[in-house]
Write a structure and sequence with these properties.
This protein has 18 helices and 15 strands. By secondary structure, it is α+β, with helices and mostly antiparallel strands. The radius of gyration is 22 Å and the shape is globular.
Length: 482
């Protein structure tokens, strides 16, 4: 891959590659030398470029390739608060990060590492794990960009919750310090130990038990209990109904629109057959054992689905499959993968298929990935362009933190979980020894990022107001409350 890790790789993907391994001392020296190129203090603060691109213009560029009638939903969701705006503004921040200092140390970046893109889900071993869970923008890139996106999201969320400036700064500092100390621990570990490292959420909660207030502990247990119920069976009861003796996906327009409501008669049958063929194509990207498992299920229905904030308007489908009987469901999600927002400012992806880019990046960064993770390509139709998609289970013990309900202490603990997890993800793909050496033993880098986060949170609020003005003037249309 294009990232620089333990070794320097040359040649084209799939070709024979010569790998030059560096010693631990050489890698540590490389990290310390990077401080000359980008002193840790240089990451403090943010000053918008003199010729900064209009943030609304960047959003409009993204909208040009999306489902037109869904774009107002995206704007409406981004308008709710500066925090929801930030969730949809990965391209805007990537543009702002492009001219900022870089150490030159590259990892597999998430590309959109805000705090809501971390969460809990089931591993194939049926354990609850905590990890990064969104990879639409993944690409090899500067590790600092992920850290800055995460840290700023913590500060914006803290502001959104009305926390004091002192608490805001502490939350960011503890998040970034956990990243630093975790990277140092990973730097001292063997390669296989780093690869196998994961965060077992039950063990973590037990370990933190005495440090959590009774209220936080109770809320955490409720979140975990809800996650264990969020599976295909719960989706079956919430997302389907029986029509003429057949299980069908329930309409909830405009968020969920079954194909029966998108087309009728022969046109509906053609749409079903085409989507079914897409599933067959995706199936070829699975490991053989997972393919055999998937083939035990029969496809019964499809629906278009609106997902997330930043992703609203991209093509997304859910497929309902049934196995042994009508009480043995499997829900798959097919989601469009466009070019990463990072590609405009870094090298283009080495993958021709952006669905494959997402899947490879996810497997690189996650300790444990969905067994049905795969990709496909859809050729252009008579009224549409070609596009790439990736597929995964819709629900598999998935859960996320209730950010708005967090106390300052709870958010600081959550930030530490995210900081450790991001460090682990970066350590798998990048030169963890060099990054740890660059960060050093003190909080120099973390204090610099506190300053950056303050300034960028202010910029994010200005951009949020710019979108509100664009809606007010009629430049763009927003649909709120959806």
């Amino acid at each position: 891959m294009a990232h620089v890790g333990v070794s320097e790789r040359t040649g084209h993907p799939g070709a024979a590659e010569r790998v030059a391994h560096l010693s631990v001392a050489e890698r540590a020296a490389r990290g310390k030398a990077a401080r000359a190129q980008a002193p840790r203090s240089s990451h403090a603060g943010f000053e918008p470029a003199a010729q900064r691109v209009d943030p609304v213009e960047l959003l409009e560029r993204q909208a040009s390739t999306r489902v037109r009638e869904l774009v107002p939903i995206r704007y409406g969701r981004m308008l709710v608060s500066p925090f929801t705006f930030y969730r949809g503004a990965a391209l805007i921040m990537a543009s702002d990060l492009a001219p900022t200092p870089r150490s030159g140390l590259t990892v597999q970046c998430c590309g959109d590492a805000h705090l809501s893109n971390f969460g809990i889900f089931a591993s194939p071993e049926r354990e609850l794990v905590f990890d990064v869970n969104d990879f639409d923008e993944t690409l090899p890139g500067p590790w600092e960009w992920d850290v800055k996106r995460l840290a700023t999201s913590m500060l914006i969320a803290a502001r959104n919750n009305g926390f004091s400036v002192k608490h805001q700064d502490r939350i960011v500092l503890e998040t970034v310090e956990e990243y630093r100390t975790a990277m140092a621990r990973f730097a001292a570990m063997g390669d296989l130990d780093v690869w196998y490292a994961h965060l077992d959420i039950d063990a973590t909660v037990k370990e933190l038990g005495s440090q959590l207030t009774p209220k936080i502990a109770e809320r955490t247990e409720r979140t975990l209990a809800r996650a264990r119920t969020r599976d295909s069976m719960s989706a079956l009861s919430k997302l389907t109904h029986v029509v003429d003796g057949r299980t069908r996906i329930l309409a909830d327009p405009p968020l969920i629109v079954p194909i029966d409501d998108l087309a009728q008669g022969d046109e509906r049958d053609e749409m079903f057959d085409l989507l079914h063929e897409h599933l067959r194509s995706y199936r070829k990207t699975l490991e053989r054992d997972r393919r055999v498992l998937l083939e035990r299920f029969r496809v019964v229905d499809f629906a278009r689905k609106v997902v997330g904030v930043g992703s609203v308007g991209t093509r997304a489908w859910i497929a309902l499959l049934l196995g042994r009987d009508d009480r043995d469901p499997l829900f798959l999600q097919l989601k469009e993968a466009e070019a990463s927002v990072l590609e405009q400012f870094l090298a283009a992806s080495e993958f021709d298929n952006h669905g494959e880019r997402v899947v490879v990046g996810q497997r690189m960064m996650q300790a444990s990935s969905d067994i049905f993770l795969g990709w496909l390509h859809v050729e252009a139709g008579s009224e549409d362009r070609a596009h790439d998609l990736y597929a995964r289970q819709l629900r598999d013990w998935k859960g996320s933190a209730e950010i708005e309900q967090m106390t300052p202490e709870g958010m600081a603990r959550y930030g530490q979980l995210c900081g450790w997890t991001l460090a682990r993800a970066h350590a798998r793909s990048g030169d963890r020894i060099a990054i740890a050496a660059y960060l050093g033993k003190g909080a120099h880098f973390a204090r610099a990022i506190v300053g950056f986060s303050r300034d960028y949170a202010e910029q994010n609020e200005r951009d949020h107001r710019a979108l509100a003005e664009a809606v007010k003037s009629g430049r763009v249309t927003a649909e709120t409350g959806v």
